[in-house]
Amino acid sequence: MELPTYTKTRNTFPALxxxxxxxxxxxxxxxxxVARMDSLDKAYARYINPAERGDKDKYGSEVCGQVINSVxxxxxxxxxxxxxxxxxxxxxxxxxxxGVVSPPDQKEDAMALEGIIQxxxxxxxxxxxxxxxxxxxxxxxxxxxxxxxxxxxxxDPVKEMSDLxxxxxxxxxxxxxxxxxxxxxxxxxxxxxxxxxxxQVDSRGRFLGYTEMVNGTELLExxxxxxxxxxxxxxxxxxxxxxxxxxxxxxxxxxATDWTGALSTTTSREETDWGSIFSGADSNRPTxxxxxxxxxxxxxxxFVRIRPSDYxxxxxxxxxxxxxxxxxxxxRDTIIYFQPFVGAYGRFPIGLxxxxxxxxxxxxxxYGEMAVPLQDATTRIMTMRLDSAKRAIQDRGIYNPxxxxxxxxxxxxxxxxxxxxxxxxxxxxxxxxxxPIPYDARGTEGLIQDAVQLxxxxxxxxxxxxxxxxxxxxxxxxxxxxxxxxGNAENRLRLPNIVIEHRMLAKIKEAIKLNLLMxxxxxxxxxxxxxxxxxxxxxxxxxxxxxxxxxxxxxxxxKMVNSEMLLQIMHLIAQSPNLQQELGYQLPSxxxxxxxxxxxxxxDRYAMAAEQDAAHNYMGMMATQQAIMQAVQQLQEQxxxxxxxxxxxxxxxGQQ
Length: 656
Known about the structure:
Layout: E1 6-8, H1 12-29, H2 33-45, H3 75-91, E2 100-101, H4 107-123, H5 126-140, E3 143-159, E4 170-184, E5 190-192, H6 201-204, E6 207-215, H7 216-229, H8 236-244, H9 266-271, H10 274-277, H11 288-293, E7 296-306, E8 313-315, E9 323-330, E10 334-340, E11 350-353, H12 367-393, E12 397-399, H13 406-409, E13 434-436, H14 447-462, H15 479-489, H16 494-519, E14 523-526, E15 533-536, H17 538-543, E16 549-550, H18 557-560, H19 563-575, H20 577-583, H21 587-597, H22 603-638
Antiparallel strand pairs: 1-8, 2-16, 3-4, 3-11, 5-6, 6-7, 7-9, 9-10, 12-13, 14-15
């Protein structure tokens, strides 16, 4: 089928800029979730208030007994880290991360696909991105990701061919390849269609995208790459001139609240006059590209479902239908990329997913948010307990200002020497200088027990208890009882695993596989299982693409092919003489396939060693048989008997 061609008019880009501005305005107007995320970050990191100037110096002016560092009970962070550790153990600790299942006769192609996926995961550093997605799911109950087919620079050292000596010079050749990238997106800056559920925006929504803040150098480098690929929306020089006078729109890029002062760099970066530092050659006026490289920009990437004719785009054939287009716009006014996009099953390459999906959408509380009220309550209880201990040591008192001064009583020195005023001792003695008011601690005796009870409620609320955290509980138990307890303890934690698998990881795996089948190139890859080079043929993968299934920790390859049943069948064949005669020859192949499913690396090496041993045994057996035949012939000759012929030799013609 002939692909349609598209022709843009002068009205196309103004209409697209208007569309992008409308999406950004709507996202800014409906961005209530940003404050919610900031409050969860505060509870997770146990911050008190945003950092201000002079925070470290204010304690010098406080009076003795009134400066106690606030102690926040670490319930939220413990809850979040326990869940992330469980999800990471399920999905990210295997090797390879995404295994591939195939029929036994396509094992080589499966290992090649498995190897190239793992190679892309390593080069793109996608595993830490998945880990951050799990943190988002545990803290915010919302995960946003992108699967991108993007470039990477490959550096290969090559010897000079003209010099064949050992000391020949080595040069470095740079080549740009394309690999799969899994990127975690900051949900604060994600723009999605609110008319559908977040988990279905990629398949049903009108638009989905995100905004990132980039420096001018990175932006120009991206534009150079687009120009090399022939898809830059204009001339690089003209776009750089336009970007020189472009300014960022406030609110399009939203950063997290600066609780510690570590993120307050945006203002300082804007105030720095990089143009005066990176000037042109010989201190001349810098070029437009150089001036643009010294600025910060908001780069918005949007995937939209549009009909080309609605935006002044002409098309041939059946091209004037609703389809997905990718657009990149800078600072709401400069479009640098606009091309049609083909995604797996008609989806956007960006997706949204909940860790807990109960039908309430954005109202569903995350595991971290559930624990916030309990953390606040236990923190207040602990503060009351510390205040009570402080008052028991130094409570309110009545003093005679004619004998001692207030600043001497409230001195911050732990062993202060308080001077007495001599004139005040004329009609009084030191016993009348200060009298403490007795402290009554009734009602505070059970505060710690109350806090423990609240923590137990938190365990009941989330299902993350001592057993799931690897902590033994009291009591003697058999191995079977222990396995039963651990299995039951993890039942509730498996609920979000099901959602994560089908709402997020299944889509990521399909996008990775489609990118390889559409844009991949034939190459030689090292198998992560055998450590041996394997030929990757995209054409063969395309022929068998419907037979490959990409597995992960929650959907391991053993479950996808029911390895337990395969093991039982092998045991049954080994126990039955009749089945051994009919199916016994299949046992070696079944064992090899089972080892491959279980992740045993280098199992083929055992098969090669077994073949060598079998060949050696066969040669030894043949040599022994020849020696026996020669000995029998000698005995027959000594006895005057007719020598026995070798059964492997043919009798002379005419003899029976």
